[in-house]
Amino acid sequence: MDTPLHFPLGKPVAITLPRCYDGEAEALCALLDAGAPVIHIRKPDAPAAQVEALLRQLRDAGADMTRLTLHHDAALARRYGLGGIHLREGALREWLRQHPDKRHATAQGASAPDVQKTQTQQTQQGNDTYTPRLSAPAHSWEEAARLAPLCDYVTLSPLFDSVSKPGYLAGIDPADACRRLRRRTDETAKPIPAAIPAELPVSGSGSRIIALGGITPDNISVARAAAFDGAAVIGAVWTTEWLGTGPQPDPKNSDRTPSPGNRPPAGTPSHDISRIDLTATLSNYQRLTRRWQAAGGTLQFISDGDPAAAEAFLQGGGRWVQLRMKDTPAEGIIARGREILALCRRYDALLIVNDDPRLAKAIGADGVHLGQNDTPPDEARIILGRQAIIGCTANTFAHIARIAQSSADYIGLGPFRYTTTKKNLSPILGEEGYRRILRQMARAGIRLPVAAIGGITEEDVPQVMACGVNGIALSGAISRAGEIAAATARFTELVAAHRTIVTP
């Protein structure tokens, strides 16, 4: 395989529960509509007929089958036009042996949407040109190194104690993962050898490394801080509702709930029936998505509303703009916000609006950043909905502890040093202040993403990132740079090179 078939990973990959459930096709369609880039159909506890029935329901419902990946059954995936197959190492090598001429269409320069369209057409026409995404599971760095050159992405697990598999305990150290992965970027990725010693970094691959195992909204930021290319989630996504009359199973082990499938056969006892709770499942996924996106705010530009500066930042690789236009009438903020939002959409970037959730809603922004005297985050959540990212300013651990009890998704912690771009400055934290607060967060189990802010320069980035923050927020260092795009690129590289995971 020459070039991987890339797909957007701005949101987590969802993996199904091992059994089939009533209402599951509807739930999977809802997750696709919510932007799930890929959903893995993994059904080890379901009969083959039930799995095929689920795929048929999805196809008949008009689901985008190219964003589905089926585990362990390439023939069934091909029959239903699925975009991917997930195979263990032996099966993956055998599939590649049987298809030596298969090359992803992206190797010839086609875009991902063109590839997906072509796959669907070819499958419907019955031509022997099915070219799926290939993925595989790995449970060690050595295994990941062997598999990465063979497929588009590898799921590496378990990062944390599993939610869906009792007794399946964490085996991948996040701090070690950070050291191995932090130098990898899609732009500089190079093929790695078929085998690589465990002590060496996985220094690059055409394939992506996806974190799996025990990932929840409370720890997904750790996976992103460790520079994994994505996160795959099982137990934290799904909520089932009990439809039977017998004793209800333990909700912590809901994936093992006895279930007859998508359409319970005649004679099935009512106490054996569970259904996917669509509303709760969708809410779970949206919270996971917000936390993953918030943890990706590794370089935030605090914009005063200058579209030219914002576009230069985006051209330099920045993907997070916070609009802060103090002492500007609401109508002016909305007009300028919509202009910058259009720029952000062009570059697949996020726009966060400072202070006012109602202005954020009027602009159509991705979220809001709230000061300590602004609207409380839970009230902002009511205004903006479950999909919006909400950040909060903090200066002490006590502030953070309160924020962690709310629906906020990240923290802007500062100031690092004195800055002229902000009025009513809180006490200066400095490097020692950041280290102290991040250690307190680790001991308390608070894993909200943290962005450092306040007078940070290029020279400060290594020491600030070494404190354990997810990223940095900049204002004057970007807006006053002679070449904003070039300065943005330098900051991006520095942040990526100095990521650190703080452990208790």
UniProtKB/TrEMBL annotation:
Its cofactor is Mg(2+). GO terms for cellular component: cytoplasm. It catalyses: 2-(2-carboxy-4-methylthiazol-5-yl)ethyl phosphate + 4-amino-2-methyl-5-(diphosphooxymethyl)pyrimidine + 2 H(+) = thiamine phosphate + CO2 + diphosphate; 4-methyl-5-(2-phosphooxyethyl)-thiazole + 4-amino-2-methyl-5-(diphosphooxymethyl)pyrimidine + H(+) = thiamine phosphate + diphosphate; 2-[(2R,5Z)-2-carboxy-4-methylthiazol-5(2H)-ylidene]ethyl phosphate + 4-amino-2-methyl-5-(diphosphooxymethyl)pyrimidine + 2 H(+) = thiamine phosphate + CO2 + diphosphate. 4-amino-2-methyl-5-(diphosphooxymethyl)pyrimidine binds at Q322, L323, R324, M325, K326, N354, T393, K422. Keywords: Magnesium, Metal-binding, Thiamine biosynthesis, Transferase. Belongs to the thiamine-phosphate synthase family. Mg(2+) binds at D355, D374. Residues 100-134, 242-273 are annotated as: Disordered. Residues 116-125 have a biased composition (Low complexity). This is Thiamine-phosphate synthase. Its EC number is 2.5.1.3. The keyword Metal-binding applies. It comes from Alistipes indistinctus YIT 12060. GO terms for molecular function: magnesium ion binding; thiamine-phosphate diphosphorylase activity. CDD domains: TMP_TenI.
